[in-house]
Amino acid sequence: MRRSPFQVFCICAVCLTVLGCITGAQKESTRIQRVAAEPTPLGLDCVQRVAENPEYDGIKTKLYFGANNQPPPEMLADKSHPTKEQIMLLYKVRDDIQRCRKILLEGSAKTHPLILLTLVNSFVESDKLWVEATGGKLAWGAFNQRRKDISTQAQANLAQADTQIASQAQSRNEDQPQLDTEQRQHAATAMEQWAHQQEVLANHQRAIFAESEAHITTISCRYYGNGNTASCSLF
Predict the structure, then answer these.
(1) Does residue 193 contact residue 123 with C-beta atoms inside 8 Å?
(2) What are 230's strand-pairing partners?
(3) For residues 155-167, average pLDDT
(4) Which of 41, 47, 94, 167 reaches 20 to 30 Å from 206, CA-CA?
(5) CA pair distance 192, 61, nearest whole angstrom
(6) How do strand 219-224 and strand 229-234 relate by DSSP bridges?
(7) For the chain, first and last CA: distance in Å?
(8) What is the rounded distance in angstroms from the CA atom of residue 96 to the CA atom of residue 98?
(9) Long-range contacts for 232-235 (Cβ within 8 Å, ≥24 apart)?
(10) pTM for this one?
(11) How far, in Å, CA of 149 to CA of 222, rounded?
């Protein structure tokens, strides 16, 4: 099946599904679709490598790695909780996914600040859940269900952003430059807040494991809204 430009997904984070063609403002739609397509192959390849990594075979019966956002019933009904060894694997999965997120962040920054904002917000919600799951108090079934819920909500949010972008492109007026500036600022603020949240997750890991075992990859981005670009680094 041929994938659409936005059809890039993040395992353990969010499934990003194409929003479809904008019925109006075709010029803006075409630009966004074209730019969004650029990081798609890299993002898909990155996520696919994580999903196929044999190191994670030990949790593939617990953690849903599928791209269709449909965990099987037995995974959703799983009442068992992650062991310390499985929690270590969860952290490793997330570290690998951070590299995929970097690709998606830098790619989405070139499209529109509302797309970038929606993506970052989905990462925020995912990482909140990740803190709960790696605390060992959340059953696997609940973890998979809530990941599915976050993905579904992110798709709805992307659809809403898509509609808003189309509406703005159709009715540009003298207030549009100010609106553009505000949307870029909202995206930049969301990225700063997410950076702080990542540190919370890193501290959470250090509290669970010995310093020699503790490592979590964080992402720091500089968003250049005027040029619709982001430069992200992994730490």
Answers:
(1) no
(2) 223
(3) 87
(4) 47
(5) 35
(6) antiparallel
(7) 36
(8) 5
(9) 232/102, 232/105, 232/106, 234/98, 234/99, 234/102
(10) 0.81
(11) 29
Here the tokens at position 222 are: 């500089």
Residue 212 CB neighbour total at 10 angstroms: 6
CB 104 within 8 A of CB 225: no
DSSP 177-207: HHHHHHHHHHHHHHHHHHHHHHHHHHHHHHH
Residue from 112, 103, 3 nearest 46 by CA: 103
Q: Which residues pair with 233 in a beta bridge?
A: 220
Backbone angles phi, psi at 97, to 5 degrees: -65, -30
CA distance 82 to 89: 10
Write down how long the chain is.
235
In the chain, % of residues over pLDDT 70 = 79
Q: pLDDT tens, 168-191? A: 888 777 777 888 889 999 999 999
Say if residues 111 and 228 touch (Cβ distance below 8 Å).
yes
Tell me the mean pLDDT in the region 87-112: 89
